Amino acid sequence: MNFQIRDAISANVHGQSAAEFKDIVQDAISRGEEHLLPGLGVFFEKWWQQSTAEEQDAFVQKLEKVFAH
């Protein structure tokens, strides 16, 4: 992913509240438009970098279950 995209997305959401982030994520998912995926990827990357090993493990275990079906 291009770092300019990361920087632009980060700048656009700087200072947003938790409720606003939730709305952004839910809206992006409900639209199902692929051009919104890089933004969700930036959110995920930031989350991953700030998460503990336990949080990361719980997340990947959840992914394993979700994608097993």
Report on the architecture of this protein:
This protein is mostly helical. Helix content is 77%, strand content 0%. It contains four helices and no strands. It has helices spanning 3-13, 18-31, 37-50, 53-66. The radius of gyration is 13 Å and the shape is globular. It starts with a helix and ends with a helix. The mean pLDDT is 94.
Query: Helix/strand-derived class?
Result: mainly alpha
Tell me the helix content: over 70%
Q: Kindly report the average pLDDT value.
A: 94
Shape: globular
For the sheet with most strands, the description reads:
none
Rounded Rg: 13 Å
Spans of at least 5 consecutive residues whose pLDDT stays below 50 are: none
Number of β-strand runs: 0
Specify the number of helices.
4
Order of helical and strand elements: HHHH
Q: Please indicate the count of domains.
A: 1
Secondary structure topology:
Layout: H1 3-13, H2 18-31, H3 37-50, H4 53-66
How would you summarize this macromolecular structure in one to three sentences?
The chain has helices at residues 3-13, 18-31, 37-50, 53-66. By secondary structure, the protein is an all-alpha fold.
